[in-house]
Amino acid sequence: MMSAPLALFTPLFARFLLSGGLNTVLTYGLYLLLLMAFSYTASFSMAYAAGIFFAYVMNRFFVFKRHQGLKSIIWLPFVYILQYVLSMIVLWGWVEKWQFSVHLAPLAAIAVTLPVTYFFSRLLF
Questions:
Q1: How far apart are CA 30 and CA 65, in angstroms?
Q2: pLDDT tens-digit profile of 24-65?
Q3: DSSP 8-state class, residue 36
Q4: Exposed, middle or buried by CB within 10 Å (0-12, 13-18, 19+), for 98?
Q5: What digits encode the pLDDT tens for the residues 83-97?
Q6: Predicted local distance difference test score (pLDDT) of residue 5
Q7: Which alpha helices (DSSP H) does the chain contain, by range?
Q8: 108 CB-near residues (< 8 Å, 6+ apart)
Q9: pTM more than 0.90
Q10: Which burial class, exposed, middle or buried, applies to 47 when counting CB atoms under 10 A from its CB (0-12, 13-18, 19+)?
Q11: Residue 82 contacts by C-beta under 8 Å, 6 or more apart in sequence?
Q12: Which of 39, 81, 91, 109 sits at a 20 to 30 Å CA gap from 103?
């Protein structure tokens, strides 16, 4: 019998990590570009919105390879709103409370929110 942490490492979870990694690279690059012209919160918000669209496409066609019709389309933004709120709390703590680099703040947010996003995405697809 597999322990709970090892049970997470299925092909499905591996595709989720790969998709999330690609999304992270794309949106992190966008965040860094936007950071040259906007505040870290505005930059993060714009890059995050682009990432939601990319995540839907990747979850639908690569990770889960299925969807539950309108349920997936309607509820997925709520999963990402939850992730966004959690990410903003992590960003705030990282930058304002602990005075760490704004350039690394999104990576800390991803590390904290990844399990939450996987759990709810799996329910929707």
A1: 27
A2: 899 989 999 999 999 998 998 999 899 988 988 998 899 988
A3: T
A4: exposed
A5: 989 999 999 999 999
A6: 60
A7: 4-7, 11-35, 40-58, 70-92, 105-124
A8: 90, 91, 94, 100
A9: no
A10: buried
A11: 116, 120
A12: 81
**At which residue do the structure tokens 């960003």 appear?**
91
- For 5, the token pair is 């942490």
Q: Residue 125 has what DSSP assignment?
A: -
Residues shown for the chain = 125
Tell me the two tokens of residue 97: 């409370």
37 CB burial (10 A radius; 0-12, 13-18, 19+): exposed
- Tokens 């690279």 belong to 25
Nearby residues of 28 by Cβ (< 8 Å), 6 or more positions away = 47, 106, 107
Tokens of 20: 């999330």
Alpha carbon distances (Å) from 40 to 27, 35, 68, 84, 121: 13, 6, 35, 14, 26
